[in-house]
């Protein structure tokens, strides 16, 4: 048996505000950041687990402190029992009543739990010699449902429901795995659409996205309607009348304002409106969905837990579900979210970009295709083309698709030199 000997945490920040990468109506000057954790063991194989929580600058130190608060749950414990029962490990850490009080099961503490859970999955996948998506996709339906905490879900998704979904997908797993390795998973790009970009940059990047094989782009909206109309028109002139262009308001609007604003943009045929209002306002999203139909509503990157996803689906508030690899409590809770989406027949198009989110969330979509839904129809992963060079195994995008990673692990490990260069010292570093 080997033991966990340390949780090493680092406050890593990239000065993306200097070029307005990531800028939108609610976040005009983000500095993309990672509250980074390494779960270190004394195992002879030398395998450590890497994970992070994505933030946009100030407050990253608070997120690091939350991860540090979990050291007492892990340091000194034998690693093998934790890895052998990841469902039990998840429930054990989530169940700390005093830390749970800070949520419960939401916010900074919940994301911190996700980081350590994801780091343990990184170790488990590396020890198995498999990429995370493949490790998960080769587990039995019974093993997979054991990972899920069904508490608060059973009026929408029971253990038996989940088993039925997973067993139905079992027969074609091997064939879909081969197909995924050969052709990848569809992606779309937000890179042209940051709100701080000039019209010229928007047009240039939209052309490049189409040339690169992406079949959808996304524009940030919500600060000024006249600007949005002008920018959307320019995007349409570049992309043509039928090319899918989604829009994203990043929670900017009141419910009635969202309906009015999207209606004003309807002539440009948005593929969906993303995060039109508060991510916690389930009934508000449902009202928007009714008010702008047939334009679809998408949300989920800030959904704080599986219960919010359950309610969004029950209320028919979304037509596109967007999970995030690090917003909820890690792989286990995201498996619950994928199963909920499958139960309700809603496609999942994950949120990505940020710091390492593309590298992380691709594993969940690929697992979903192979072992849960069995389809990529109407599904795609967001792609943003920055900061990939800082990861040991960066995303591999070809022809607008994510090629399936084959390296062992979760894909969340950053290069040691990048960690050193961008560790926060109270000033922009590494530039």
UniProtKB/TrEMBL annotation:
Pfam families: MR_MLE_C, MR_MLE_N
Keyword Glycoprotein: no
Catalytic activity entry: L-fuconate = 2-dehydro-3-deoxy-L-fuconate + H2O
Domain Mandelate racemase/muconate lactonizing enzyme C-terminal: 199-295
Keywords, alphabetical: Lyase, Magnesium, Metal-binding
GO annotation, biological process: amino acid catabolic process; carbohydrate catabolic process
InterPro entries: Enolase-like_C_sf, Enolase-like_N, Enolase_C-like, L-fuconate_dehydratase, Mandel_Rmase/mucon_lact_enz_CS, Mandelate_racemase_C, Mandelate_racemase_N_dom, RHMD-like
Cofactor: Mg(2+)
Family annotation (CDD domains): rTSbeta_L-fuconate_dehydratase
Molecular function per GO: L-fuconate dehydratase activity; magnesium ion binding
Superkingdom of origin: Bacteria
Residues spanning the membrane: none
EC number of the protein: 4.2.1.68
Alphabetical list of SUPFAM superfamilies matching this protein: Enolase C-terminal domain-like, Enolase N-terminal domain-like
Name of the protein described by the UniProt record: L-fuconate dehydratase
Lineage, opening ranks: Bacteria, Bacillati, Actinomycetota, Actinomycetes, Micrococcales
């Amino acid at each position: 048996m080997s033991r966990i000997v340390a949780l090493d945490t680092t406050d890593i920040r990239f000065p993306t505000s200097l070029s307005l990468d990531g800028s939108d109506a609610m976040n005009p000057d983000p500095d993309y950041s990672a509250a980074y954790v390494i779960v270190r063991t004394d195992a002879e194989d030398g395998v450590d687990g890497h994970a992070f929580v994505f933030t946009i600058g100030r407050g990253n130190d608070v997120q690091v402190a939350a991860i540090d608060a979990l050291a007492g749950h892990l340091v000194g414990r034998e690693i093998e029992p934790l890895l052998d029962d990841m469902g039990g490990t998840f429930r054990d850490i989530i169940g700390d009543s005093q830390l749970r009080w800070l949520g419960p099961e939401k916010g900074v503490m919940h994301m911190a739990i996700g980081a350590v859970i994801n780091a343990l999955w990184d170790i488990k996948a590396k020890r198995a010699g498999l990429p995370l998506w493949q490790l998960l996709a080769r587990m039995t339906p019974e093993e997979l449902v054991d990972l899920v905490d069904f508490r608060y879900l059973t009026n929408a998704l029971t253990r038996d429901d989940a088993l039925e979904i997973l067993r139905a997908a079992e027969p074609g797993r091997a064939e879909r795995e081969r197909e995924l390795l050969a052709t990848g998973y569809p992606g779309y790009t937000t890179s042209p659409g940051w709100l701080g970009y000039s019209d010229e940059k928007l047009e240039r990047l939209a052309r490049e996205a189409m040339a690169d094989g992406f079949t959808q782009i996304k524009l940030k909206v919500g600060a000024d309607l006249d600007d949005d109309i002008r920018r959307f028109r320019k995007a349409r002139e570049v992309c043509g009348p039928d090319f899918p262009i989604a829009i994203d308001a990043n929670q900017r609007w009141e419910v009635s304002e969202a309906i009015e604003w999207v209606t004003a943009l309807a002539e440009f045929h948005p593929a969906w409106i993303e995060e039109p209002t508060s991510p916690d306002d389930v009934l508000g999203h449902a009202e928007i969905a009714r008010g702008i139909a047939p334009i679809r509503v998408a949300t989920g990157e800030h959904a704080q837990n599986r219960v919010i996803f359950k309610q969004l689906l029950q209320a028919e508030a979304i037509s596109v579900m967007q999970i995030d690899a690090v917003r909820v409590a890690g792989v286990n809770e995201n498996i619950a979210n994928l199963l909920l989406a499958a139960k309700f027949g809603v496609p999942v198009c994950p949120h990505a970009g940020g710091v390492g989110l593309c590298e992380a969330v691709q594993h969940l979509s690929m697992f979903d295709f192979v072992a849960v839904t069995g389809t990529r129809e109407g599904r795609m992963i967001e792609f943003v083309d920055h900061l990939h060079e800082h990861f040991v195994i960066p995303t591999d995008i070809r022809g607008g698709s994510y090629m399936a990673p084959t390296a062992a692990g979760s894909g969340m490990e950053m290069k040691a030199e990048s960690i050193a260069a961008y560790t926060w010292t109270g000033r922009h570093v590494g530039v």
